[in-house]
Amino acid sequence: MRMFAVSLAIVASATLYAQPAPFHRGDLVRVRPAANGSDATTALVLRVVAVPGDRIRIGDATLYVNDVPVSGFSHEFLTRVAQVPERTPQVVPVGHCFVMGEQRTNQDISEYWGQHSELRLERAQ
User: Fold this and answer.
1) In what order do the strands lie in the sheet with 62-65?
2) pLDDT of residue 10
3) CA gap 35, 57 in Å, rounded
């Protein structure tokens, strides 16, 4: 009777498992400060509006993602977003999300929108 030795090798990539879980439209996030502190950051809770590959456009003070209107933001906020088109990508690049946030408390208005690397986003709790 012959015996065979079988060896099994399992190769795992640490970088694969170190990647953050992907974000989805509607997720609530915060932007982590950049290592050099030069990029914008906000303590405001933001909503992921678009994920990699999504198409964004603003028309008639309505935000569209993949030609579907997005609700939940005031007409005034969307009008201001439309006035600064360079801050809104037409297509969200791989590894990034487009986020927006609006908070109105006691007449204090905080607004934020922009594109950020998924690595700089953390889930809000």
Assistant:
1) 56-59, 62-65, 68-70
2) 55
3) 31
Residue 85 region, left (φ>0) first, then alpha (ψ -120 to 50), else beta?
alpha
pLDDT in tens, the chain (125 residues): 666 555 555 555 555 455 556 999 999 999 887 666 555 556 788 999 999 999 999 988 899 999 999 999 988 899 989 998 898 999 999 999 999 998 766 656 678 889 999 999 999 87
If residue 96 lies in a helix (H) or strand (E), which one and from where to where?
strand 96-105
d(CA 29, CA 7): 45
Q: Which residues pair with 122 in a beta bridge?
A: 30
| Count of CB atoms situated within 10 Å of the CB of 20 | 10
Q: What's phi and psi for 22, nearest 5 deg? A: -65, 150
The residues near 41 (Cβ < 8 Å, ≥ 6 apart) are 31, 32, 33, 34
Please name the amino acid found at residue 40.
A
**Which tokens hold the place of 86?**
């360079």
Question: CA 103 to CA 116: how far, in whole Å?
Answer: 20
